[in-house]
Amino acid sequence: MSVAVDEAALTSVDLPPTPAATTAHLDNNAECAIPTTSSPVYTTSPLFYFTNVTFRVGNTIFRVPRHGFEVPGTVFETMFSLPPSADDAGVAEGSNDEHPIVLDGVEESLFTGFLGALYPCVKSMDYDDWVGALYLSTMWEFNEVRERAIDAISPMLAEKNTVEVVLLAKQYRILNWLRDGCIRLVDQPSLSIDELRTPLMLDWETTTRVFYVRSLPMDVQPTLEHRRSCAINTFGAGIRCSCSPRIDRSACSRWRFVNEVFKTEFSVMCPNADHVDPPPALDNSGSAISKKNKNKKK
């Protein structure tokens, strides 16, 4: 069976365009192409765009917002302003886990407590945490953190050993703690030397003054001058004046005698100082020894 072929129909079939023809078609329509949109430009918040800093304490790596350590006048402000060293290939110290700021001689527990006070709401803080915060904030001159630690520790001291309170006050130069601790020792119904030496050892100077004040008669009629000064001093410290005839005068006498007998020790405390020297170490007798005193002994 034969099939007739229409040659005219075959020659009229549309064939796909050649590559060259397609390219020419695209070139002719280039001007009609939709323009691409540029990426949007964003600005960083001047308040809430934090840079992190990495520390190594012992074998533990810490990474926290750097702004907490950018305290004017501290060693960290100076540290952050230094250019990267050539040994680190231009990488700033503290910028990552491989190039942390190494805090030699700092215990991890103390640093954890300090960070808890520096960045509130991250962890719940107990007494030891706050003491760690107090230690490092005093050493590094973070005065706001120091005041925060003092405010947090103060109500906890009522449950602590009185000798511990006195030693803590001496180490960190906190006048109210030292005065309150001395008054507590004077007020105790009975007190032995062993209680001031075990398990914590109070220095002999403070021990002698405590027993001396305990030996003084407390029910002494105050003078008019004392009534006036007592009203000013005790009210200013948030303590009720006991010079009124309606109130037992022994409480006021204790306050007065403690301030007089411990005047030398109270004078070296720093209740409102903007600058506080690093906490001195305690010797075997429990006495705070500063570096200056050590140098004098040498």
From TrEMBL:
<protein>
    <recommendedName>
        <fullName>BTB domain-containing protein</fullName>
    </recommendedName>
</protein>
<dbReference type="InterPro" id="IPR011333">
    <property type="entry name" value="SKP1/BTB/POZ_sf"/>
</dbReference>
<feature type="region of interest" description="Disordered">
    <location>
        <begin position="277"/>
        <end position="298"/>
    </location>
</feature>
